[in-house]
Backbone:
């Protein structure tokens, strides 16, 4: 099976972690994001770079961020189709 076939059903394929994080910060803001995902880098001295560094080293935290992104994206898509 080719790499392209493996990833065709992966909604995160081709989406950079930085883009995911920037989208969530824009949508929720740091404070709300820290409430939704209890990670210190979202609550204190928030920067994209420090958060990316932590998320790249911490698989469980990255998974929570990716899941929130997908849930937010799916909710936004449903709202846009109902308008």
Residues:
């Amino acid at each position: 099976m080719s790499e392209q076939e493996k990833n065709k059903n992966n909604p995160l394929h081709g989406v950079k972690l930085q883009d995911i994080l920037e989208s969530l910060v824009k949508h929720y803001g740091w404070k709300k994001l820290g409430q939704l995902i209890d990670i210190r880098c979202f609550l204190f001295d928030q920067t994209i770079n420090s958060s990316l560094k932590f998320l790249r080293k911490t698989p469980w935290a990255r998974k929570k961020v990716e899941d929130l992104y997908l849930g937010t994206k799916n909710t936004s898509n449903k709202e846009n189709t109902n308008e």
About this structure: The CA atoms of residues 17 and 52 lie 7 Å apart.
